[in-house]
Amino acid sequence: MKKVLVLGGTGFLGSHVMKKLEKIEGVTSMSISRREGIDILDIESFIKKVKDFNPDVVINCAAHVGSVQYAIANAGEMIKENLQLAINIYDGINQAAPSATIINPLSNCSYPGSANTHYEPEWQDGPVHDSVLAYGSVKRIQYAIAESYKKQYGTKSINWLIANAYGPGDYTDPNKVHALNGILLRLIQAQDKGDKEFVIWGTGKPLREWVYIEDVAEILVKSLNIHEQTYPLNLAQNKAYSITEIAELGAEALNYKVTLKYDTTKADGAPIKILDDRMFRESYPDFTFTPLSDGINSTIEYYKKVL
Questions:
Q1: In b/e form, how buried is each residue of 2-20, taking b as 16+ CB within 10 angstroms?
Q2: pLDDT at 175
Q3: pLDDT of residue 1
Q4: Which homologous superfamily does the CATH classification assign to the domain defined by 167-208+239-273+290-306?
Q5: Which of 39, 66, 80, 286 ranks highest by number of CB atoms within 10 Å?
Q6: What is the distance between the terminal CA atoms of the chain, rounded to a whole angstrom?
Q7: Across the strands, what pairs with 273?
Q8: Beta pairing partners, 59
């Protein structure tokens, strides 16, 4: 019997991870989140909860997230909270369950802002893009924390670099929702209002790799069988679509004939983010990603139910 603790298990990614774990024979899972009355920022209550459960593996889905615009406007709050979360998680696990392995889904926004194709050996070869300074910098520090705890305490970590996630279960607040979901959410709302125009935030030109949330959850659950992977590995398809292309695909899925307009007062972020898949395919040659069209349709169905 393997005991798996999911941090942020009621959130966008964490809820999908919990559902997958519940289907695995021989696994007992538990979630810790603010919604369930435990704040990881309260280190004493966090340690007590971890001691009581005594996990073998910790899947860390806890984070303060938001859109690019949100991250810029709330940069101080975001870096403070995410940094404290990262420190408390490693310190708390080291005190309460020192033999547990910690699995971290890091963000590809921690790659250098000037990099186009993101290749793991070049992960820290330059500063992160200024638009994601608060969030991307902490993800690099999270790796440094993992390495430091490994050196002193022998803490085992498995780190993944994840592209822009999308799919059912995300926020309905346009400022907090992930990028692709935000476009679909606003398209649905615009169609419901009968708008003839749809405004894209920024130029629509940035290229992004997108990954369906179920695929991220699947790879994190598969990581239960990995002993250690401290240096991060891309969860990669090596394929990108522009913001404009996503809006066009979303409008097509909705059968919504609309004219796209652009609010160039909004920040674009880095121009290109594509994850190199060579190292990933060496380890996971048979991993199948959800087609973008299928993922968009599922996400639209979700938002139509909850809006």
A1: ebbbbbbbbbbbbbbbbeb
A2: 78
A3: 87
A4: UDP-galactose 4-epimerase, domain 1 (3.90.25.10)
A5: 66
A6: 40
A7: 208
A8: 6, 103
3-state SS, one letter per residue, for 7-25: ECCCCHHHHHHHHHHCCCC
Chain segment 65-107, per-residue pLDDT in tens: 988 888 899 999 999 999 999 999 999 999 999 999 999 999 9
| φ/ψ of residue 51, rounded to 5 | -60, -40
Q: Where are the alpha helices (DSSP H) in 97-121?
A: none
| pLDDT score, position 230 | 94
Over residues 209-231, the pLDDT tens digits come to 999 999 999 999 999 989 899 99
- What SS3 class is residue 242? strand
